[in-house]
Amino acid sequence: MRPALLIIDMINLFDFEGGNQLGVHALKACGPIATLRQAFADRNWPVLFANDNFMDWNQEFTDLVAKCRQHPGPSSEIAAVLGPKPGEYYVLKPRHSGFLCTTLPAILADLKLQELVITGVATDSCVLATVQDAHMRGYKVRVPQDCVAAQTPSRSTRAFALMRESMSLDTRGAKTVLRSLAAEQ
């Protein structure tokens, strides 16, 4: 079963209340996400972005990437590392979950994917909502703990507890998740 890497809301200006804190923590997750992304590319496994459009329906994902590259701080650093590459997929989402009112379910079905490695921000908001939707839809889900971020570590801790206890999800680090995926192929 071929997995997909789903990167949530990492292309982000972090220009909202609590955004500065989130940006600092997101920057720490950027390296492990980039490592996973390269490993997925090396194996020809799909990489997808589910990104907030911040209710600007006239903005394309590439426009947001360009804005982030020009924005000082974590936004530009993250966009430089995680900006989309040819062959990667993206959906713009109007709310928290990557599944709500997006083409994500259609893309996953078309690619015949049943397993997701979910990364990004915020652990206790958009990541959690997407994880719950994926789990309810029957996808096998993994959430590497070093590939997500929230405004505070305690918010991530609470979200991880919920993921592990109510959904029995694998939340080990990226390297361990990658080894596990490789062994299953």
UniProtKB/TrEMBL annotation:
* Source organism superkingdom: Bacteria
InterPro entries tied to this protein: Isochorismatase-like_dom (IPR000868), Isochorismatase-like_hydrls (IPR050272), Isochorismatase-like_sf (IPR036380)
Named from the GO MF annotations, one term is: hydrolase activity
Q: Which organism is it from?
A: Solilutibacter tolerans
Task: State what protein this is by name.
Answer: Nicotinamidase-related amidase
Statement: the UniProt record of this protein carries the keyword Transmembrane helix: no
Q: Which UniProt keywords apply?
A: Hydrolase
- Ranges of residues in domain Isochorismatase-like: 4-166
Keyword Hydrolase assigned to the entry: answer is: yes
> Which Pfam family would be a valid example here?
Isochorismatase
